[in-house]
Sequence to fold (75 residues):
Amino acid sequence: MQRTDACPHCGQDMHCCRNCEYWDPGAHNQCREHVTEYITDRERANYCTHFTFKNGPHEAQETDSAKAKLDALFK
Fold:
């Protein structure tokens, strides 16, 4: 995978923190790697050398479901 590769279905950047196995929103700097620089936008392509593509479902599916439930609650 190249740094500039995008998803063929939605066009989102694939080499981004949210697609990395080390991404952890609860960790310092949102990354489980100890030697990482701060990245401001976790959904855009970046130059992180620790990037390893995550196996398993994408987090956006869970987020979209939670947002839909929250929207339904306030209708």
Q: What stands out?
A: Residues 21 and 54 are 4 Å apart (CA to CA). DSSP finds one helix and no strands in the chain. The helical segments are 59-73.
